[in-house]
């Protein structure tokens, strides 16, 4: 019974620590918002600035994992040079080690005051102040968890089972390293594991060299969650997290045989045995940064060898055959098939954006920029190819067909731009800042996404079949979209009047997504207009004539 109570107290204290870390991350994201991401992206023009940006971002977010994922996403969008990204991660690692060192200073008496101040700020109307309050509560909970960890581990220090386990680990440093790394992976936080090691080692029952090995394991395990989180991201993004893992692994491999010497240094009068774990954590990351910084070009080449660039599909078999240029029917048939491929790419982009919003998953957005690049390239090739067909000697019918192909390609390219430059960053902002739409708002947007996807598929059919009835239905659906957009905007404004907090926080995102989806549908419907015009079903003007 007593062991069960001890276990509950220990796991509860660790859970409180992790919850406090999450509150700090969420609070700082809300308080600083896009400024944090913008500052991180802007602060990477040089090595020292990149290092400082990684350090400050991690101290603010209390999570090197969060910093790693932001940096990976920036590399993916070409906002950060890969060489600077690795230096940002070196700063992030020292940032989380500095946080552990500060937490261990014995500031537990501040915990009630910070929680009280945080709760007061959370009751204010300003989103920034509410975020700052949430972060203060998180800091207070972290300090409180440290006190609870110390109390929870006190009975364990006298446990013969724990002493036997520690003795076993002391005789098998690789096992100890992997055990600590596994805990860091499970907790998704090296900081939490280092604090736990600090609490267990406070009585001096754990050999100093073993404490250092356990800290090394926490560092190694802390680099794994970002790698797992970017498994479905682009190659460039994955290289950042893989590079960070390689640097830490090499550092641990070098430092583990020297743990005994490190323990002797840390037991000098300049250091406190009570702070041994956090001192080792900080000194290890500083040493790794000093060594790895000059070697960052080598790390880049190594990650490029491990993760070589894959063919993105740009080498698809093109239907634009230059041998058909003197045969307009064959050439335009090939151009039509090529523009259908562009439509498929755009549909894929839109589907991934909808999934990212529905699942709150940034990895779903990782391919959109590359797809948009392919759309731009192929539509340009189509325009150039069509302009050369028949060398200007086209029949009226072939000329109209060529113009329809080019106009459809241009409209698809515009849709790709809207998705890549509008919808993708809007959804990325929502996920990164931890924002949530109201349940009604989420369903309205997902319904409009689904309708837009259906309309895009119908446009592909209309373009290939020239069916006037389908074209008429597509134009009618545009009116339905316009009506849904107006209704959703009206409902959203009513939720704002009702003071719905989730609607207030996501107001601009909701309205921007509605606007972008409406614009996409306008471009989609454009494919039907030439067909209706040829069939005599299109009025020259929608403006009522007045005598």
- Largest beta-sheet characterization: none
Determine Rg (CA atoms, Å): 29 Å
Structural class, by secondary structure, is mainly alpha
Termini Cα gap: 93 Å
DSSP summary: helix tally: 24
The share of residues in extended strands comes to under 5%
Using DSSP, what is the number of strands?
A: 0
List keywords for this structure.
547 residues; 78% helix
Task: Put the structure in a nutshell.
With about 550 residues, the chain is mostly helical. The chain has helices at about 1-30, 35-40, 45-60, 65-75, 80-105, 110-120, 125-155, 160-170, 175-185, 190-200, 210-220, 225-230, 235-255, 260-265, 275-290, 295-305, 330-360, 370-390, 395-430, 440-465, 470-495, 500-505, 505-525, 530-535.
How do the helices and strands line up, and which of them pair or pack?
Layout: H1 2-32, H2 34-42, H3 47-61, H4 64-76, H5 82-103, H6 111-122, H7 127-157, H8 160-170, H9 173-187, H10 190-201, H11 208-222, H12 224-229, H13 235-255, H14 259-266, H15 276-292, H16 296-306, H17 328-359, H18 368-388, H19 396-432, H20 439-465, H21 468-497, H22 501-505, H23 507-525, H24 529-534
In words, what does this structure look like?
- This protein is an all-alpha fold.
- The protein has 24 helices and no strands.
- It has helices at residues 2-32, 34-42, 47-61, 64-76, 82-103, 111-122, 127-157, 160-170, 173-187, 190-201, 208-222, 224-229, 235-255, 259-266, 276-292, 296-306, 328-359, 368-388, 396-432, 439-465, 468-497, 501-505, 507-525, 529-534.
- Helix 17 packs antiparallel against helix 20 (439-465).
- The radius of gyration is 29 Å and the shape is elongated.
- Residues 541-547 have low confidence and may be disordered.
